[in-house]
Amino acid sequence: MTAPEAESVRARPQAARPSVWRGQGPVVAVVALGGAIGAVARYAASLWWPAQSGGFPWTTFWINVVGCAVIGVFMVVITDVWAAHRLVRPFFGTGVLGGFTTFSTYAVDIQKLVDAGHPRTALAYLAATLLAALAAVRLAVTAARRVLKWRQR
């Protein structure tokens, strides 16, 4: 590059970079806030209904199933009914429900069951959680849509 070309490049004004708070900053903040709320709710549920050592982890099972059902209803409401603010989905869907439901505890529960000599219970838990969570989402979406159709008549 010649000296005049280099000077020309340096003289060009740089495009202003948008502030992080106008971009992804608010999304990260609401996900963090929602995640904290969801995690506290999950922890409260585990204190209220502690799992039995070596037994089926009912608390985590129901937390995940209920969370999946709620996300099913939530997604129908914000896509079919309500034009939600851009931060509602990250706050509630990713944050609150992401913090409330727990794949990590599900995986740890399976490992604990296997380590404690309960591989059949671990396998039953693995399959039951997957099937129940998927069924919960599907049933919640279907029920929410039917209720909305019924209310529109």
Please tell me about this protein's structure.
With 153 residues, the chain is mostly helical. The protein has helices spanning 3-11, 25-48, 58-81, 88-100, 103-115, 119-152. Helix 2 runs parallel beside helix 4 (88-100). The protein is extended and about 75 Å long.
Short key terms for the protein model shown above:
153 residues; mainly alpha; 0% strand
How many angstroms does the end-to-end distance come to?
Answer: 71 Å
Number of strands: 0
Strand content: under 5%
What is the average per-residue confidence, as pLDDT, rounded to a whole number?
88
Q: Could you give the order of the helices and strands?
A: HHHHHH
Q: Strand pairing plus helix content: what structural class?
A: mainly alpha
Radius of gyration: 23 Å
Number of helices: 6
- Note the main sheet: none
Measured as a percent range, the helix fraction is over 70%
Shape: extended
- In the predicted model, the low-confidence regions spanning at least 5 consecutive residues are none
